[in-house]
């Protein structure tokens, strides 16, 4: 269909990508096409290729301290585990070192560079204060809207842990704005989250500070900076078709630190 309309781009579009859009729209071709072309328009409007090529994020280190987000091993289905900790997040401080736009762009550039089909996301709300929470919520909302509309079916599952009561009630208010398929993949858990988590993640793959048994060596930065996982193994990094060519500069500096 895309080929018929002359909208197929050899270097960007592949079966996996198109399949994700199809699945997100229950294989209804008209709806899939609508969603896909909206996404293409959006990618055009934000100039995604230039963004990938030229985006620099020197504040990475500072941002990580304020807002730890990292990949850590895989779950029982082989999906990379992505952990976000909102506790240390002080938005005022965060937006002193960076901007919301740059945060979102960084996330986009990362998503474009990483060849990840689906992931298992853990969002830790431990120690998130009331005031923080309201501000953080809008950030979560805008990033989840982007994920849902333009990177469909990439979220395998999401666990929100240490969620305060307030979160559960606010969540109920925003769920109508989200795709029901997305909502179904998100589990809100309070402080006793371990048993639910260990249904999908082996203890040894979960950081000790969150209740698992993994202790990555401190010298490489501990669980949150080591980036352990099968993607570090050579057999998976030989794939030359990734990252897509448009993400690479002549100089390898376009490769973002994770
Ligand atoms: Zn670890």
TrEMBL record:
PROSITE patterns: CRAL_TRIO. The lineage of its organism: Eukaryota, Fungi, Fungi incertae sedis, Chytridiomycota, Chytridiomycota incertae sedis. InterPro entries: CRAL-TRIO_dom, CRAL-TRIO_dom_sf, CRAL/TRIO_N_dom, CRAL/TRIO_N_dom_sf, PI/PC_transfer. Transmembrane segments: none annotated. CDD domains: SEC14 (cd00170). This is CRAL/TRIO domain-containing protein. Residues 59-218 form the CRAL-TRIO domain.
